[in-house]
Structures are given as C-alpha cells and as structure tokens.
Specification:
The protein contains 14 helices and 22 strands. By secondary structure, the chain is α/β, with parallel strands linked by helices. Bound molecules: NADP nicotinamide-adenine-dinucleotide phosphate.
Amino acid sequence: MSVPSETSVVEAVAKGLFIGGKWVDAAGGRTFDVHDPATGEVLCAVADAAPADGMAALGAAVAAQESWAAHPPRERGEILRRAYEALTARSQELALLMTLEMGKPLAESRGEIAYAAEFFRWFAEEAVRIDGGYATAPNGVGRFLITKQPVGPSILITPWNFPMAMGTRKIGPAVAAGCTMVVKPAAQTPLCMLALAQILADAGLPEGVLNVVTTSDAGGVMEPVITDGRARKLSFTGSTAVGRKLLAQCADKVLRTSMELGGNAPFVVFDDADIDDAVDGAMQAKMRNIGEACTAANRFYIHRGVVEEFSRRLTQRMEALAIGRGTEDGVVVGPLIDDAAVTKVTGLVADAVERGARVLTGGDAIDGPGHFVRPTVLADVPVDARMAGEEIFGPVAPISVFDTEDEAIALANDTEYGLVSYLYTSDVKRALRVAERLDAGMIGLNQGIVSNPAAPFGGVKQSGLGREGGGVGIEEFLETKYIAVSL
Ligand code: NAP
C-alpha cells in the first residue's frame, strides 16, 4: 500500500457543511482556516456556518427522525459495522489527517483511529440488543409492557483533543439507538469529522441522519439549535466551563444531557507498589496525547518511601522522549494545540516554581514554529499551586509527597473534578479500600489507561453527567416507555 501524502489526505476531505446528505457551502460562502499546530501553517479552509446553517442542519435531523427510528436495528448496526471496517481499512490516511490538524504523533493517531473505530463495532453489536420487559403489576391484574425508544434528534458537540474518537463515541450509540443528529466538531480539528461524515454516508447512513456543522462561532451557531427545543438531547464533550453554559441552555426546554467534562486526575503511588509498573503507567497517564487528555494524570501523590526513586526514574523517562512534528519518525511528543496552550502550561509551571516547586527536568517552551513545551517533572509541588486545581493539559508531571493512606485520599479528592484516579499498590485490600473512597467515575488500578469502548466512561462531581461506551452507553440515547395494560 502506498504511503499517503500530506497534501492528498487534506485534499481528499470535503470542506463543506454536511446537511441532509449533501455537502453545501455555508451561508455567504464563508470559510475559516485550519492550521497545523506543528508549523502554524494553514492546512486548508472549511465552511464557516452561520446560525441559519445550524438551523438548517437541525431541520434536516428533525425531518429524518421518524423514518430513521423505524429503520430495523440490524440495518443500523450493519451501517456502523461497515463504517468500522472503512475506518480500519483507511487508518493510515486518517491518522495522517489527524496528526496534521491536531499535532499528536502518528502512532498515537493510529491508536485513536483504532479506538474510534471500536466504538462503531461495539455499538453495531448493541443496536440489536435494545431490551424491554413484560411484568405483572402488584395488583396481579395489570401488566406492564416496557420498551425503549430513541430519544430523538440529538446535538453532539466534540473537542479537539480526540477529534475522531470523541465523535464515534457519540455517533455510534446515537446511530444504534435510532437518533438523528447535528454534530459540531471543534473549530481547530474539523477535518476528521468531515472525513467521518463521508465514511458514514458511504456506509449507507440515510440522508439527514447525520449532519455536520463546522463554524468559528460555536456559541452563536449552537445556542439557537439547543434552545429551539426540537432536538431532545445534547451530548457534549469539552471543558467544564462550557459544559455549565450548555446545561443552562438545555434547561429551558429540558433536553436530556450527557456531559463529558474536564478532569484533574490524581496518580497515587503507595510504597508497596511495583515501581516499574508505576513509572510505566505514569508515562501513559501523563504523556498520552501530549498530556492533552481529560484522563491525563494531573497530580502525582507519591509515598515518601518511594518518592525519590519514582521521581528519578520518571525524570529519566521524560528526558528521553523525542519531541517534534508528529509526522516525523520516532517523535513521541508533538506540539500543543496552540500558543494559548503553551502560555497556560508555562504559566502554571512558573506559578508552581514561585510557590516552592523544584524543576527536575523541562519547564520551558521550545522556540517555534509550532507550539512545543518540553516534557517537565516538578518536585515538592505545594497544594496551593494553581496546577493542583486546574487541568494542565500539557506534558507536565507535578509530584507531591504523602505519608498516610488517609492523607493520600484526602489530597486526591481535593478537587471539583472526578473523572479518573490512578492508584498503584500491590496490597489487594488497600487497592479496593482506596478505590472505593476515591471520588471518581473511573479508577486505573495499577494501570495508566482506562479508556475502553466496552467499559462505561465518565465522571462524577464537575467532570460530568452520564456515561459513554459499555453496556450503558446506548441508554443515553434511549427513552424508556411503559405501556399499561389490564387483563
Ligand atoms: P471546549 O473549549 O469546552 O470546547 C469543546 C467543544 O465545545 C468545541 O467543539 C467548541 O467549539 C464547543 N464550544 C465552545 N463554546 C461553545 C458554546 N458556547 N456553545 C456551543 N459549543 C461551544 O473544550 P476543548 O478545549 O475543545 O477541549 C478540551 C476540554 O475537553 C478539556 O477540559 C478536557 O478535559 C475535556 N474533555 C473531556 C473528555 C471527557 O470524556 N470527559 C474527553 C475529552 C476532552 P470551538 O472549538 O469552536 O470553540
């Protein structure tokens, strides 16, 4: 198979809005540019939707809902299965497209394509397993027939950090459940979603089921779509700040919501842990996606007895990482998404150092072009450092020390977030005791990656509402209806 060129993969993507099964221009023919974060250069321009375009997409989704809901579940599943196969077959070119618009190294992009495709395979299987029930009422005369129906037209809003997987994680269950949708990808990474729309159309998804709107004015375009009331569901992945705003917009017409929001994951290592495993897991939990992941380890709490060894070994591993454009061989640390991200990350490092943290390695940005920050390890990070309370979203590992189990749990839970916590110990009783007390929707027990399409992904506290993937993922797009019968 020939290796695709950068120009050809960008050229192959349709750059319009996908509405009612057709590629169309935005109102007034407006476009905005998409950049390569490793070079700052413009990759291409895509359609820049206006509010009227967003409403046209909603209209198409609403018009298609009834016939789509009546589509046999097996056919819905088979469309997803064909899309899974297409994603898998075209993994090389799609990975290159992802690296160009988002920056992550090619190997990670290939990993994301596989992860993204897996949501389609999983939900292809779930489409035919939507269950119901038949029960006897307590009075013995009544009967309950319980069935599940699609919630209806859905709005799906996705972030830039996993431009394909955050889309398939929502589109998969929506298609399987029989919902139509308006999808709005992040302005910085629209190309993967545009490619995905064509793949789903080629896989046989009927017109109007999936509509994609790219825009440089997310709030202006999406607020009328959300507040209109004909869409019955919003599934959002992004920051907690934007999630709060969208929840308020959903309140008026009481839309169902799924919110996958920010994280501030603690990574706790006890002195009985296998340190080889802990360092390996730390590298995964910290450096996957250049640290730009909601699941990224944001605070390392290490028992005093092992902190020196752990810090030394983590520092060695971070120093050995090759930094560069994600398309280059051997590169494992790509650029951050933009200059603002570099300013934020280096600002958080400066704040921690001012409060007494020590830089073990890195700590600085690398001169452009591109938005690079050197992999960084900080020791003695005080609890009042800003980075203890905020998502770093970059390649910085802040280490603090603890002495007791209670102290570790209190530190770990001292955050408004609750997406994932990582826990390293070889004592089974401690593992379960601590896992039960950590306020998080997911626990990485002696492992640095929790994401799996077959498992329920999601957070507690201000990390979100609802779960994606696993057996419960499809439920987010289904309503339960009961029919009362009397014999
Ligand atoms: P973001 O700024 O909240 O944006 C997410 C999406 O919302 C983008 O498509 C964005 O469009 C759109 N948006 C922004 N303002 C909006 C508004 N007023 N109305 C409607 N849509 C709006 O987040 P991000 O910077 O792209 O992504 C990083 C965040 O996502 C982090 O906090 C990360 O933790 C979180 N995340 C969470 C999960 C999870 O599963 N819990 C997974 C991945 C990422 P524009 O791009 O056009 O601004």
